[in-house]
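Tokens help. Consider this.
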Amino acid sequence: MKKADVFLSYEHSMRTVVEHICSVLEADGISCWYAPRDVMGDYATSIVDAIDNARVFVVVLNGAASQSAHVLNEVEIAYKRILDSQDELAILPFKLNDDQLSKAMEYYIKRLHWIQAGDQGIDRAIEELKTKIAAIVRPGRSQSAKRTSNHYYDEGDADERKRLKTQRQLLERFDKPVYDAVCASKGALNVLDLGCGNGSFAASRLAGKEVGCMLGVDCNEGAIQSAIANFGADNVEFCHCDLESDDLCGVLEDFCSKRCVKFDLINLSMILLHLKDPLKVLKTARKFAAKDAAVIVKDIDDGLNLAYPDESGAFAEAMRLCAASPWSGFRQSGRQVPYLLKRAGYRDVDLVKCGLDTLGMDYDDRQALFDTYFSIIKQDYRILSTTQPDNDSYRLAQKWIDQNYNDLEDAFHEESFFFSLGFMLFTAKR
């Protein structure tokens, strides 16, 4: 059966209102269940199953609905689910007008906070309802709907090191031909790697190529120390600096003045999504780029993610949780890259690769792709729920992940399952 975020309980005379509520919620990615639209098979069984699988129970109320035997039965089933299993089902009464409610209905909902449509108008009330539901079914999403600076990376976190290593290895086949083609058209390269991490990405992509000098910059001091220890050389330097700070210009100027160079290749791999002001960073880098310098930008856009089949909506929910994590970056970043590059003064912007999918992948490659995307959800909410135990949103997210992670992984390995992750690879010139 269809599993949905929200069960809508109502009396039949309010069908038009419920359809309007449903259309507003589903337009924002919140799945709904209501009868008779979603009934499959036996009517009563279908309703009970839908309530059992919902995260939120919305009862749309007026005087008639409060006396409806069907509505009262559905409210009772919702309460029974909470009492029997101590479940996290949320019940939200949505009151259309000032009608007197039946004593039976008041018994169930009198202690709950009502949304009063009569006080503010139906459209504003539905927006209030949507906001409350979104906070329950997609914790933290409102914070991820805009760009913010987020610098989470712990060099001492073994899980994060493992995930990033897996991601680098998987993406090497995706992007290395592009690096090879760009570098083949140039001689000795002077390279700027912004968001260099521990240095291993640039080292793998530039292996075997003639490098005049290279500067890697990252905001994480532990990663920079690791980069210096493993890849530092006379012609390769690494610097700890927040890319969005005014200090970046000074760092680049010092390096270029000392070596009397400008950069022939500027690399930004999976870093723009973590910046609040990527345009500032791109403009600063351009000041120190040689004429016709190449720029390679890898970024991600979850709008390009595809998971099929996903009848239960579990993959969709996992992707929403990824976007909601305060550490996973701005998940619609990829679509902004051409605009940002052109605004910063770069030319010949080209999207050369788009999407990394499971077609043709063996078991190990599928596992690597799964780990690249889904393990970040698991580890982020593990840390968030531990460090912020009073945050109900993080606790509920962690509970959902614990309950569904293994099933997601098993489904991912099904031969018939298709998944595409929205990596995007751009090239441009100074």
